[in-house]
């Protein structure tokens, strides 16, 4: 049996599946596209996460566009992080040209142009449906990790949340958190210390500086109401096409803290809200994270550990996460180990560091008799990629050089008028883009301080009497904390993780 026949048998058997699948392109051998040898990905294993890597200009953006279109056609919603502003054209029908026609004829793969249902989202000043989350929804543990606090500072944050729980003070945005932090340091210090224990002003000062750093990256636009319901990411239109939700992030490339804060919040919310799916036939949602290094480069160790943990667990909820980056080494090894699908576009060897990265990347793929992986990885053209996926049994498919199909939608961005039309006609815009600033911790504590100041002016002797009363009526601080809702939530969360680890 000659090499071509062996290759044909290997690819056709390796990429044929019993269940439903999407087709991303055709197989290539010795720089020739082999007709009718389609590269398919089973829907069943799309929740096993994936990596799309390659040098600038090798076709990663169009690959994401193709994947999103094919998923939408199967009724699977998509959320993509659009860092460079490349994806909005998915909302408009593409155009057919000679290059596309010839490419698809060589694969014997039909082609048609099509527009897809799109929602444009924003966490910054970009035009789109506003995504927000409240401080309370983060909780003390997650919020402390975002701020990269030490154990002592995290303890202060837990007390702050507990005080707000006990006194019905909603923590909605950063001004609520700052006001409460200032209150427990100054006017409410005696009250809080009698109830929960001593609080260091050095710790509260450090926390405040971390909050200011977050504010400087634009986080005040993200924290607040109305909180975004993650179920609004999982919609299909009247034709049964999954919505492609494009989060416009072109203005936060230099604000990685805000980006990682949002991503951790989103993943935690999706994980907590979605039910267990078990061995489902297709995923509930696929998330594409472009320029993935922005999450990992400046993430603290605690934040990185939290992201890694969620990625490991979230696939059981029917969620697949796909990281897009120039080099696989941008993604931590502990995360790479969780990724079942790999689409590797060409890498360029300009330096010794590049050559080492190419060698390392080549070793991440299954062995193959049809390609010299470390050589072909530098020789592929635009729109070509090394591909391996997980089959329905969870086994990696044979490594293949794939010629990617062309996107069906526009391969260019929308103009401002087209963007305005999508945003203004969206049902989600009416739901989320009306700002709400209801009575919360900031307003309540401001009134409390004003009333106390007025009372002190009118009745100066009351202050000393209140101090005496507080000393005689103090509840044991330790008992107060361990019986709190905040402490119990945290304890059960830790216990749950321990039990899960033992069961595994």
TrEMBL record:
It comes from the Bacteria. Residues 36-470 form the Helicase HerA-like C-terminal domain. Transmembrane segments: none annotated. InterPro entries: HerA_C, P-loop_NTPase, T4SS_component. Coiled coil: none annotated. PANTHER family: SLR6007 PROTEIN (PTHR30121:SF6), UNCHARACTERIZED PROTEIN YJGR-RELATED (PTHR30121). This is Helicase HerA-like C-terminal domain-containing protein.
């Amino acid at each position: 049996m000659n090499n071509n026949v062996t290759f044909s048998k290997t690819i056709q058997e390796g990429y044929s599946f019993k269940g439903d699948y999407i087709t991303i392109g055709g197989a290539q051998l010795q720089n020739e596209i082999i007709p009718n040898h389609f590269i398919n990905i089973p829907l069943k294993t799309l929740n096993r996460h994936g990596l799309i890597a390659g040098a600038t200009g090798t076709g990663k953006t169009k690959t994401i566009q193709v994947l999103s279109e094919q998923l939408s056609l199967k009724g699977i919603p998509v959320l993509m992080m659009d860092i460079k502003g490349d994806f909005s054209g998915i909302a408009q029908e593409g155009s057919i040209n000679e290059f596309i026609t010839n490419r698809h004829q060589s694969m014997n793969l039909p082609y048609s142009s099509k527009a897809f249902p799109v929602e444009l989202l924003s966490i910054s000043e970009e035009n789109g449906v506003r995504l927000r989350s409240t401080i309370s929804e983060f909780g003390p543990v997650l919020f402390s990790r975002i701020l990269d606090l030490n154990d002592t500072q995290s303890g202060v944050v837990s007390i702050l949340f507990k005080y707000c729980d006990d006194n019905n003070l909603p923590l909605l945005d950063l001004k609520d958190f700052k006001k409460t932090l200032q209150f427990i340091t100054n006017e409410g210090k005696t009250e809080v210390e009698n109830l929960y224990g001593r609080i260091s002003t050095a710790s509260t000062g450090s926390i405040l500086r971390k909050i200011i750093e977050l504010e400087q990256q634009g986080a005040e636009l993200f924290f607040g109401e109305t909180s975004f319901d993650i179920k609004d990411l999982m919609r299909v239109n009247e034709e049964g096409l999954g919505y492609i939700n494009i989060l416009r992030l072109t203005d936060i490339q230099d604000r990685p803290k805000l980006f990682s804060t949002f991503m951790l919040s989103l993943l935690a919310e999706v994980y907590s809200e979605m039910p267990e799916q078990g061995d489902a036939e297709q995923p509930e949602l696929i998330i594409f994270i472009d320029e993935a290094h922005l999450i990992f480069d400046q993430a603290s160790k605690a934040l990185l550990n939290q992201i890694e943990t969620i990625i490991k667990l979230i696939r059981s909820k029917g969620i697949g996460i796909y990281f897009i980056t120039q080099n696989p080494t941008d993604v931590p090894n502990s995360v790479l180990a969780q990724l079942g699908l790999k689409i590797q576009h060409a890498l360029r060897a300009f330096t010794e560091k590049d050559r080492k990265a190419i060698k390392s990347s080549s070793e991440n793929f299954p062995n193959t008799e049809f390609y010299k992986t470390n050589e072909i990885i530098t020789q592929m053209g635009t729109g070509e990629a090394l591909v391996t996926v997980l089959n329905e049994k969870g086994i990696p498919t044979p490594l293949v050089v794939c010629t990617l199909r062309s996107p069906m939608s526009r391969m260019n961005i929308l103009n401002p008028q087209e963007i305005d039309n999508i945003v203004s006609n969206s049902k989600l815009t009416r739901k989320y883009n009306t700002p709400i600033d209801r009575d919360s911790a900031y307003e309540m504590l401001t009134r409390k301080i004003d009333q106390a100041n007025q009372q002190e002016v009118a009745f100066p002797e009351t202050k000393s009497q209140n101090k005496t009363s507080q000393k005689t009526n103090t509840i044991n601080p330790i008992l107060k904390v361990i019986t709190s809702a905040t402490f119990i939530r945290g304890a059960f969360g830790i216990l749950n993780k321990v039990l899960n680890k033992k069961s595994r």
